[in-house]
Design goal:
270 residues; mainly alpha; Serine Threonine Protein Phosphatase 5, Tetratricopeptide repeat; two-stranded antiparallel sheet; 50% helix
């Protein structure tokens, strides 16, 4: 007897009669479906793989470049971060005048990678080997966003593909905060299917999560779907008060992203 979902069931995403591993109406996964990209078991109703971003029911798609299973490299890359930070500390004690585009500056350095934007006590560079995995993740994320905002896309992509992605993959399963960070970094590396998958996963877990809605708005606009983007904006405005009251730490960490999205949503013509 086939392991496929029987026709007596309904699709968890759209309610259509369910047969096979994927819904013929909306494409969502049924029980027992796996990702064509990384063979991860998909949650019933998922339209994207939460791990690699491949749409449910599709042939394998290109995800983040260099994102083959990185777990064997994660420890080595974190060690590299620590060595570079230590070298930067020595350089920093003599001079802090180097520019962002110098080769060594493609990696974390003193005064540039702190989540709150302030140098540590005594002006010393951080020893990344003593930072928690979550602090390393957010420090790398912040650096990537800085470089991308400054128009230094090549440097941002270098850190994203060679350091951030292997590190965050070593931290799976990801929480909502990490999924938002991964979505934004995927956007920088032009892996929009991965970014869209993170928004989809966050909103399936919490349909009113502000960061999930912010990321969904960005992905809809990049896809050229203004109707969908406005729908997400309306949901963002409606959810703001109740969600802010929850005081999630990720809301504080990304308060500027949330506020900017709200300002734009309120002036978008309806």
């Amino acid at each position: 007897m086939s392991s496929a979902v029987t026709s007596s069931r309904t699709c968890p995403a759209c309610g259509s009669p369910a047969s096979g591993l994927f819904c013929s109406s909306c494409g969502a996964s049924h029980a027992g479906a796996t990702s064509a990209g990384c063979r991860t078991t998909l949650s019933p109703g998922a339209k994207f793989c939460h791990r690699c971003g491949t749409p449910a029911g599709s042939a394998p798609l290109t995800t983040l470049r260099g994102s083959r299973d990185p777990l064997p490299w994660a420890v080595a890359l974190v060690a590299l971060c620590a060595l570079v930070a230590m070298a930067a500390a020595q350089r920093f004690s003599a001079s802090r005048g180097s520019g962002l585009d110098a080769p060594v500056n493609a990696l974390p350095q003193a005064g540039l990678d702190f989540p709150q934007g302030a140098p540590p006590m005594g002006g010393r560079a951080p020893d990344i080997s003593n930072m928690s995995p979550a602090d390393i993740e957010f420090a790398l994320y912040s650096r990537i966003m800085e470089l991308d905002a400054a128009g230094k896309k090549d440097s941002a992509q270098f850190i994203a593909l060679n350091m951030f992605i292997p590190h965050i993959r070593s931290m799976e399963p990801l929480n909502v905060h990490m999924r938002y960070d991964l979505g934004r970094v995927a956007e920088v590396t032009d892996a929009l299917n991965v970014a869209a998958a993170q928004a989809d996963t966050v909103l399936r877990e919490n349909p009113t999560h502000l960061l999930g809605l912010v990321l969904a708005i960005r992905m809809a606009r990049l896809a050229g779907d203004e109707v969908k983007a406005r729908g997400f904006e309306q949901r963002l405005i409606a959810a703001e008060a109740l969600e802010r009251a929850k005081q999630f730490p990720e809301y504080e960490a990304h308060k500027d992203d949330i506020q900017n999205a709200l300002v734009e949503a309120r002036r978008t013509p309806r």
